[in-house]
Each structure stands twice: as structure tokens, then as C-alpha cells.
Prior knowledge:
It is built from 1 helix and 6 strands. It is mainly β. It has one domain. It has a 6-stranded antiparallel β-sheet with strand order 3-2-1-4-5-6. Strand 1 and strand 2 (about 35-40) form a beta hairpin.
Amino acid sequence: MISAKLQTQINKYKKLPRWSSKFPPYIEQHYFDNIPVYFKDRINPENNYYATMPANSAKPNLIIIKFDNQIVFAEYKKKLLLDRLPLA
């Protein structure tokens, strides 16, 4: 289930345009079921973090991707809620 707080954030960012590919984020964060699995900080590379999912593990119900703390992608139970990822 999606919390009311997360739904409010998704609704807020739905109104914004796609993230421009000309301006890569300083901080990129990926969450699976609210667990951080990827964190990239361009200014402080020592803070980068990446976790791999085992091949036979359960697929996450909730996927969130943030650029500079803005939600750019949200998917819940394979239903796309928000896609502001840059077009290549």
C-alpha cells in the first residue's frame, strides 16, 4: 500500500516536466519497497552505494527513483504512477 505522504509527493511531481538529460542529478537514489538499493552522489563519490538483487528474489512491489530528492519515477505493483525520467 502507498502511504498518503508518498501519494501527495507523486501528485506534486506529476505536474512537473520530465527531468532534462542536459542536467544530470547531483544525487540519484533508487528504492525498492522503501529500501535504498542505489545511491550516487556526484560531489561526494565516497558516499556511493549499490546493492544487487539475487536472481531468485521476489520482485519489489514499489519502485521509487529520485533525482536531487525529486521523485522522477514511481511504480507500484507493476502499475506506472509517475515517469519523469529523461528521454535519451
